[in-house]
Amino acid sequence: MQPKISLFFKPSTSTSKTPDPPRPSTNLFADENAKESEILITYKRKSRNPDRVSEKVDSSRVMGKAGKVLNKKRNYAQFHLELGQSDFLLHTCTTCGFKYAAGEEEDEKVHKGFHKTHTHGIQFKGWKNERVIDLPALEGGRIILVLDGDPPAQAKKVQEVVKMMEMELGDGWIFKKQCKVYLYISSQRVSGCLVAEPIDKGYRILSSSADGRNDDISTKKARLSATTLQFGGMSFQREITKRNRSEKHIEVPNGAILCEKEAVPALCGIRAIWVSPSNRRKHIATHLLDAARKSLCTDTIIERSQLAFSQPTSAGKALASSYIGTKTFLVYTTIDYDQ
Predict the structure, then answer these.
(1) pLDDT digits over 194-207, tens only?
(2) Distance CA 148, CA 158 (A)
(3) Domain boundaries, given as residue ranges, for the chain
(4) Is pLDDT of 105 > 50?
(5) CA separation, residue 49 to residues 52, 60, 180, 273 (Å)
(6) How many secondary structure helices (H) and strands (E) does the chain include?
(7) Which of 5, 28, 307, 308 might form a disulfide with 332, Cβ 3.0–4.6 angstroms?
């Protein structure tokens, strides 16, 4: 049987009837001292969330474009003053000239090895076939001659020594194919090296160049006027000194060498000579020069006066003057023999 429509609009019995709101009191002047009802409000502190803390810590860092974590907090601590110095953040050894980062273990190790090689010489274990120059006056070492066309191991060692020489003497001119190389071996190290070549002429340097200074002004004392000052029992005399230029004055630029225009015969050209710093003043350079004079020419021993030096430094000038026995020794230019 179909239910009536009125049954659908019948209120539900399960719903509770809401109480009517309280009617306002008609007494407008109620007791003002009446105690109002107290309402207690409590707050509970939330527990710390570790995930939230990590987010705050990570928020101080941001990711760069290249994926590198960058710290947003800037550090203004200053450790160095950059004033245009060439070796900024690098230390330069005053002995060997090597530049390295002080405190870095790898750099310190590399510098230590290079420093020992520079001061004591390049390590040398020896070869099976050595061309040893016999010198009676040589004690505690030996001199080996290396020629063009020798085995690759010997040529490689020569190149290593030449690189060490170029650090002090300049690069690009010391060694050529026609040169003969003399190596001084002591304590399994190359302590000295001489590069020589056959030549046919040299030029005698002038005495003013050999002195290594300008003797352009000679002091000549001349008493032009004398004034005597008397103080009690003491007398003082004033003299005037006049400086006159010598008639034999020769202008010598700093480091330049002046020589005569006319060439003289020479047989042996000393292209370069080098001795490790810790072995200097032990007559090693003298032994190397003796070996060159003895073996450069196969049929004769070259006289000391027939040696000529190329681009001698101040130390080279002193060595040449001492070895030849005169300040007016011979020099030559390597350009004439590089072709």
Answers:
(1) 999 999 999 999 87
(2) 10
(3) 132-205+257-337, 215-245
(4) yes
(5) 5, 18, 83, 78
(6) 6, 18
(7) 308
Distance from first CA to last CA of the chain, Å, rounded? 133
The runs of H, that is alpha helices, within 179-219 are 207-211
- The CA distance from 22 to 19, in Å, is 9
Q: Alpha-carbon distance 322 to 320, whole Å?
A: 5
Give tens-digit pLDDT for 308-333.
Answer: 999 888 999 999 999 999 999 999 99
- Tell me the chain's radius of gyration from C-alpha atoms: 48
pLDDT digits (tens, 9 = 90+) for 114-169: 888 888 899 999 999 999 999 988 888 999 999 999 999 999 999 999 999 998 88
Q: CB of 70 within 8 A of CB of 60?
A: no
**Which residues, 6 or more positions from 214, have their beta carbon under 8 angstroms from its beta carbon?**
208, 251, 252
At the second CATH level, the architecture of 132-205+257-337 is: 3-Layer(aba) Sandwich (3.40)
Whether 244 shows a pLDDT value over 60: the answer reads no
User: For the whole prediction, is pTM greater than 0.90?
Assistant: no
**Phi, psi torsion values for 250, nearest 5 degrees:** -125, 125
- Residue 123: helix, strand or coil by DSSP? strand
